[in-house]
UniProtKB/TrEMBL annotation:
Keyword Iron part of the UniProt annotation: no
UniProt-listed Pfam families: Lactamase_B_2 (PF12706)
Residue span(s) of domain Metallo-beta-lactamase: 18-210
Name of this protein: Ribonuclease BN (tRNA processing enzyme)
Source species: Salirhabdus euzebyi
Any one GO MF annotation of this record: 3'-tRNA processing endoribonuclease activity
Keyword Zinc listed: yes
Keywords: Zinc
CDD domains (UniProt xref): RNaseZ_short-form-like_MBL-fold (cd07716)
Amino acid sequence: MQISTIGYWGAYPEAESATSSYLVSKDGFHCLIDCGSGALSRLQRRLNPTQLDAIVLSHYHHDHVADIGPMQYAMLVQNAIHQTNKILPIYGHQEEAEKFANLSHQSTIGIAYDPAHTLILGPLTFQFLKTKHPVPCYAMRISDGEKTIVYTADTSYFEELITFCKGADLLIAECSFYEGMDGSGPGHMTSEECGKLARDAGVGELWLTHLPHFGDTMKLKVEAEQLFNGPIKLAEEDLSYGS
Ligand SMILES: [Zn+2]
Ligand SMILES: [Zn+2]
């Protein structure tokens, strides 16, 4: 299983980049995790959207779903050009009915995942944990039977995250604030909390993502390093793990 960063900003994309989006691939199966602003454009540096087998969404904030509309148009246009009838499944939670309904279009179909159960997509399994965020949001534990990756999605820090992340080979943690700040209001984590989570869960590697638009983001890595001894990477486009 390989995971690559397509977009890594929180809130909005800075120039030539995208907000939250990651491509997970295994044996020719391609799954996009979140589809933020700019994701469709940046994804096409790697593959054509018609090559996607599924999209899985953590929640319906714009910085995670903004490119779902353009993705639906891309599928529609590609189907027309190539005289195909491919329907792309988009998995999301059903706790906001109107937002879930928007996932279905002529060339895409919204499918609800049940967060209480494991979702199996091709060679990948997904387990979910509801996070602490102003809207319903789910962290994902993704496995191909060999390696395990946890993506926190958007959340403030809470104890149950440790169990959910336990022993993961890679932890992709949202890191929206710097050491000493309080992210619990908007529902986000600090560098310190990411480092503590990685340490207490005993993960193999930590990526800091969902980056803020203020301060020196390299500082986030330095701050997390005070707590976690393993490898830490600041998310950037094309940052990849696995093969
Ligand atoms: Zn976000
Ligand atoms: Zn959010």
